Amino acid sequence: MNDVDTFADLLTPEGQTLLAELRDHTPSDELAAATRLRRTHPAALVSAALGQARLRQRAAAKFGADAGRMYFTPNGVEQSTRATVAAHRAERLAALGVRTLADLCCGIGGDALALARAGIRVLAVDRDPLACAAARANAEALGLAELIEVRCADVTEVDTAGYDAVFVDPARRGKATTKGAARSASLGGGGRATGGRIFDPEAYSPPLSWAVEAARKAPVAALKIAPGVPHDALPEDAETEWISDGGDVKEAVVWFGAAQGGAGRITPGGRRATLLPAGDSLLGAGLPDPEPGPVGDWLYEPDGAVIRAHLVADVAREIDGRLIDPTIAYLTADRLAETPYATAYAITDVLPFHVKRLKALLREREVGIAVIKKRGSAVEPEELRRKLKLGGGRNSCTIFLTRVAGAPTMLLGHPAADAP
Questions:
Q1: What gap in Å lies between CA 115 and CA 89, rounded to an integer?
Q2: What pTM value is reported for the model?
């Protein structure tokens, strides 16, 4: 029996009964559960159900409560868009007037679900039969099957003419090193997801160059890429948006559609940073880097999406700030200014890096809790924490290990929200 047939068995009444029994199981109970369930159910089906239960637990961080009803493959869990990010993209496409869309490289259908919930009719395409089976099952499980057609095919051979938009999410991981590992992983067995991340956009599957050409043929298009993509690899006739969620950079999206306006307006050549869950979005003005200067009363740590989008200068203008060093993405200002694009800290001390001096100062101030951040420093925060041997002091402190005007420096302070 192949993987798709085994997956299909999960959708039978017997398979559903097993999944229901395993809904709240814990990994430590897995061996006992497997032994018990194999007395009354086929061993292959029990293994598949246990694997699916594990994947659902892992997927909860991305899909929330929906994960308990959805179906996954290991690659699907690893590569799927976080639900909040997918919803943001779907809402932007809907604001652009998109009503029909071809979702190429759909995987287990995470983006297709968000698009359908935004009222968009979706053709979801993937060449992996198991991923397609999961995508169909997910559309059914979440009551969206009428809006999602799943097709198992090579995306490079799909005619997207007649659709309002195209979305492409190329695979960015290598293949498993052995057939056994691939098969074990495919249904959530003992294997991990397939190989490591791919950083060369032309090594994506399909390559970024193909995805760009496919996008240019559509009225509107969005291409999901890794956030670390080099800026010189980005097409200048598109807008690129870096998205963070809860402060973590999740992805970059290349948008095509020069004539589009409204709430989701696409700006060719633009660089944008969008911060979720609030949805604040900053479109760059092409500013030069600000001049560095002395550390003021306030330090600003830009959101990762702002840094990836090269929009630190735009935030500096917003807060009337400057860089602390020409190579470091920390900003400083003499007055506190509110901005959603950076976290502000009140700075109390600017000191040359010296562990003994820092340890004595923290003891004197009765600091028992320290948040240690680094940017441009060779010192590892956990290594420094061990050396500081913080005791049970009643106060807290934020320590920045960085460079100021090229010199290794320690900045001490606390979040602006805690400032007196």
A1: 8
A2: 0.89
